[in-house]
Design goal:
Elements (H helix, E strand, L loop, with lengths): L1 H10 L2 E2 L5 H6 L11 H4 L1 H14 L3 E3 L7 H5 L7 H16 L5 E6 L11 H18 L3 E7 L2 H11 L6 E5 L13 H11 L3 E6 L3 H14 L4 E5 L4 E4 L2 E4 L3 H14 L1 E4 L7 H11 L38 E6 L8 H13 L3 E4 L11 H12 L2 E7 L5 H13 L4 E5 L20 H12 L16 E6 L6 H14 L3 E6 L3 H11 L6 E5 L5 H10 L7 H7 L4 H19 L5 E4 L6 H16 L1
Helix pairs in contact: 4-6, 4-12, 6-7, 7-8, 8-9, 9-10, 10-11, 11-12, 13-14, 13-22, 17-18, 19-20, 21-22
């Protein structure tokens, strides 16, 4: 049937089905439910939807498996059922198509946020496993859809081609027919053809009109058959639900224009219904794919127009002397005089940069970006602003980062952030559109002069990009692998969780040396035995050796501070010649303690 599908789609225009999620929601399925799991627990509902689209005139129906990959299913405890859910999804669509002259397409979507934790081979395995299960269930072709990252779709095409089935590769383009990373429609057409896609196209997005413009560009860049699955316009939020305004008649008229632009497989995405498909089938009945001139050679479009700054800020000192950064806590209220005074004292002592965390432990503090700009202006010292993925969505992150660049902030430490439920505000929720890996990539894109959609923003932001590293784990190689991926995404330096074990610090230095970036070990001086026990037993990511806890036992007050500084100095002495600098974290925001260590480091450097 795969070969038959390819013959048909070259000879006639085929009509696809419409939205699955929209219609299942309309049938009463909660948005919190996993739609793909319905293949197992409510198969009759899924079969009913397939029947409705077939009755409307769909000639290609998709399986209810868009999000049935291991990354998404494992996150909700359904990882072991990946193959079963996909096979069942294929069988349900196959059952609906029985005896009809129609094709069944196995639907695969992007892997989602969790993919950042996986290697390239693990990503391929996710797509391979899903596609093989769909093939076993009896699909005629595979349709990869709603991908926003070209690299992920390329990898997916290569993986699913192992089934031997025809592959449709659809991207969800942003404004101006661009993708994350700055890739254009022309770039995508060439690279997907090289990867082995049998059809290329676009789906989802802003609506039919914008998708039509993208389709015209794809048609000029490739000779492959084209697929088009637009949304039914922009959704409008009304009375607790999203409403799509595009009428079936308007949608079908746009579908006809897409055929005239070169599409030979036309269906619908979000907001489309059997009524939309019925009108599309009526208006496209009997149409043949238009003759298209041989695609012209389109060179790879240069990504972005910005020129990222080569200035490395405080890292200009790396390799010539020890880089010293110090963390201070933004205030819980509006009085920031303590932070300004502490920054001034630390600068005078010889610190290179001040770290300002963003709502650490998900507890509300003054906005660190505004405070960073104030410290830079008042004190004249560089500030490393920590930016988390918890509190803003992708739109807000981009907006605030561009604003930070405008304010002169030149160094960012990208962290995922503590979940909101750790904090004091019970009504707060975590966003996590991105994680530390993808936030670093976004920062790198902004440095290159493009936003997350690849649209030019002017000159590059020129951020010095930092990453967090936790050496206090059983298998440090895993963390080093994570850091390597952050470096590949654009990280230029790393700061670690506090380390107290000298042997562990030496292992970290050895394992991270090949990455070629400064890794600044975290030094958090202890102040009492109680403080040491709290950090060891209650703070994630901190491990304090038994010997050090014994040394601190029973100590408090000035005696505790002296012993804590002595332990910190011994740690610095042990690895001084093997690291490029240090990340000092004064306990309870007491900059005086950090100032003592800065002075100690500067004196040691002169020895």
């Amino acid at each position: 049937m795969g070969a038959k599908f390819l013959d048909r789609v070259r000879q006639e225009v085929l009509v696809g089905d419409g939205a699955i999620g929209t219609m299942l929601y309309a049938k009463g399925v909660s948005l919190e439910a996993n739609f793909e799991h319905l293949n197992l627990v409510r198969p009759q509902l899924v079969l009913e939807l397939h029947d409705e689209y077939l009755a409307a005139g769909a000639q290609v129906i998709e399986t209810n498996t868009f999000g049935a990959n291991f990354v998404k299913l494992d996150a909700i405890g359904l990882g072991p059922k990946v193959a079963e859910i996909n096979r069942q999804g294929a069988k349900l669509a196959r059952q609906a198509a029985a005896g009809k002259d129609v094709f069944v397409a196995g639907s695969l979507g992007p892997l989602g946020r969790g993919k950042a934790e996986l290697s390239a081979e693990q990503l391929r395995d996710c797509f391979r496993t899903q596609s093989l299960a769909l093939a076993e269930g009896g699909v005629d072709l595979l349709i990869l859809e709603t991908f926003t990252e070209l690299e992920e779709l390329e990898l997916a095409v290569l993986a699913v081609k192992e089934t031997g089935l025809p592959v449709v590769a659809n991207l969800a383009f942003g404004e101006g027919a661009r993708l994350s990373g700055g890739f254009s429609a022309e770039d995508a057409a060439q690279r997907l053809a090289s990867a082995g896609a049998d059809l290329i196209g676009a789906n989802c997005g802003a609506g039919p009109l914008e998708l039509l413009a993208t389709l015209k560009r794809l048609a000029q860049a490739s000779d492959l058959p084209l697929a088009a699955y637009p949304n039914s316009g922009f959704p409008e939020y009304l009375d607790g639900r999203y409403i799509y305004r595009a009428t079936p008649d308007y949608f079908a008229g746009m579908a006809r224009e897409m055929v005239e632009a070169g599409a030979s497989l036309v269906g619908g995405c979000c907001g489309t219904t059997p009524e939309h498909v019925r009108e599309v089938a009526r208006q496209l009945a009997g149409l043949k794919p238009v003759a298209r001139p041989a695609s012209r050679s389109v060179g790879t479009v240069q990504v972005g127009t910005g020129t990222a700054s080569t200035e490395q800020g405080f890292l200009t000192h790396w390799g010539t002397r020890k880089v010293i950064t110090v963390e201070l806590d933004p205030p819980k209220g509006l009085d920031c005089s303590k932070v300004v005074a502490g920054s001034r004292a630390l600068k005078e002592a010889g610190a290179d940069a001040i770290n300002l965390a963003e709502n650490p432990l998900a507890r509300v503090r003054m906005g660190n970006l505004a405070l960073a700009a104030l410290v830079r202006r008042e004190v004249g010292i560089e500030v490393i602003a920590h930016v988390t993925c918890r509190d803003r969505n992708l739109i807000g992150l981009q907006s605030d980062l561009m604003g930070a660049s405008l304010l002169g902030i030149s160094s960012i430490l990208a962290v995922t952030g503590d979940p909101a439920n750790l904090g004091e505000d019970a009504g707060a929720s975590s966003v996590f559109d991105l994680n530390s890996f993808t936030l670093i990539k976004l920062l790198n894109d902004l440095n290159r002069g493009v936003n997350a959609l690849g649209n030019p923003i002017g000159s590059g932001t020129g951020f010095t990009i930092g990453a967090a590293f936790n050496p206090n784990v059983q298998k440090m190689e895993v963390q080093v692998g994570r850091l390597a991926r952050k470096v590949a995404n654009g990280a230029q330096f790393a700061q670690t969780q506090p380390i107290y074990d000298i042997a562990r610090a030496e292992e970290m230095v050895e394992l991270t040396a090949p990455l070629g970036i400064p890794v600044l070990p975290g030094v958090l001086p202890l102040v009492s035995g109680r403080n040491a026990e709290f950090l060891h037993n209650e703070v994630p990511g901190i491990v304090i050796p038994d010997e050090i806890r014994r040394r601190m036992a029973g100590r408090s007050g000035d005696d505790g501070v002296r012993e804590g500084l002595a332990i910190a100095s011994e740690f610095i002495d042990a690895i001084f010649d093997r690291v490029g600098g240090f990340y000092l974290i004064p306990p309870f925001g007491k900059h005086e303690i950090a100032t003592e260590l800065v002075k100690y480091l500067k004196a040691k450097e002169k020895q």
